[in-house]
Fold:
Amino acid sequence: MQKTPPVTDHPYRRQPKKAFWRNVVQDTYPLDITDWYAKKFPLGKKRIATAGSCFAQHIGRELREKGFNYVDVEPAPGFLNKAHWLDFGYGMYSARYGNVYTPRQLLQLTQRAVCEFSPLESTWNKGNGFVDPFRPTIEPEPFSSIDEVEIHRKHHLKSVANLFEVSDVFVFTLGLTEAWLSIQDGAVYPVCPGTAGGEFDPAKYKLVNFSYPEVRKDMEAFFSRVRQINPKMQFLLTVSPVPLMATATPQQVIVATMYSKSVLRAVAGFLAEKYPYVDYFPSYEIISSHVMRGQFYNPDMRSVAQVGVDHVMQQFFKEHIPPVKKSVHVDSPETNEEDLVCDEELLAVFGENK
Amino acid sequence: MKVLITGDSHAGTLQRGRKLLVSKGEWPEQVDLMIQPFGGGHIFPTPFFIDKGDHAEICNKDFRKQFKRFPPETMANSDVIYGLSGPLHTARIRRSRAWSEFVPAQFAVAEAPVSNALLNKVILDDCQYLLKFIDIILRTQKKIFVVEAPRPFKHDSALTSIRPEVFSYFDNYYRSLIKQELKLRNVPVIAVGPECYDEDGFMLECYRHPMEDDMHHGNAEFGEVMMRKVLEFLLEQQFPNNPE
Structure:
């Protein structure tokens, strides 16, 4: 009689259900897939700041709306209608830096904020005015003078330095590996010179497509510098699922996107594995993984639909449970006292205000 | 000549001025002028009317107590000249507490700088419905002029937290921008003359409203000054683009 062979032990036997494709994907409706993320550290009441490429805007907005302790060191003035906040870079991130696409840009932003780097080129011409090359689209119109650019930049960078001091967790969404930099001093711009100000000159600017070692080195330098300022700072990394709008490399844009995202994803994974104060949240996978059938993209297959953002944030909030919202005290409108005076004036002159 | 002046509570000051002139026997007989404001100016930055092509249907419930439509139906086919107080009243934005933390870039010390583009957006937002309202009146081939509200007063309590130079700068900036808009539309402005304010842009104390806690209305004397200007304008018919 043949004996049943003994069950051999191996590492997969001790793996949880979520480790197996069959369990997670094969017989599961995509929206029912679970276990995307397990937090490394709680957010709780920690003060949270955000930066990154455009997808990071959704994360910041959701955190704020859900009542997390969201940091905004450059809030909008009360007299600006909320409908225009984004036009002027308010409420987009925790400071008015606009989109920060690459780790090098983030590192240099930090260095500029703490006065360790002063790019040689500090303004770009645009139309009849001037813009800040490091956030050229932060306002809908160019500033009227170079002095005005400087005044705005000085306040902004001071605010960014403050941001690192007052925040406990810095959420950064890695967006791109391609960037344009100054040949003269290596300053990295968020957009190609000539597209939103300035003039493209191949003798002054060059394209760089950062490699894995470069991205990793920049991120580690960023962590190190920020933790000198704020030794308890924790970092939560995500990778933007938004593909490149265009590539300046010879590659086809989908191929270039895959390279870029692969490098960023690999670095983020490495950093989260290596450092106890770094976590990784897989918004990139939740949106762009083929198991999701591309359903979270708009018809352009690039921008992420709100339903996708909602689904991503649902997975996030399963682990980081939003605080219970307290009843919000609404200040009486600023004009109330004035309104009363106006009514009194009308009554005094015209009698009953019929 | 029939004239209807409407608008915000500063129309009350004009009414006081009109009464003074009448009591002095200086009101010109040929000017049949009525003042009937809509109500408080805080409503003007809201969509207080619906554009019905040849008139504005007033939809704010408080304003509707004064006019159901504008021009009023009874005046639709007459040669009434309209005066409007409101587009050059800056206090709604000027008195915002935010000016203690945000200032135009050239004033920035510790405050956050704001750009001219942002100021323009804020002002045009504040005045958008009044400008559209004026456009409807102009579309109906009626004559309309705007009466400027007093400049800020030095006793304004907002000045305890807002720097006077910022307060005055914004006030002036607002008026200049809206005057440009009115000029584009060929709408004449009855302006507050420099004899009414000091070199820093603040109203002279003698024009202060008698009520202690009134921070922005002028008194009857100021109303008289402005009403004299209105009369001078009307009698000379200084419309730059006379629809007739």
Chain B touches chain A through 45 residues (CB under 8 Å). The mean pLDDT of chain B is 95. DSSP finds five helices and ten strands in chain B. The first strand of chain B starts at residue 2 and ends at 7.
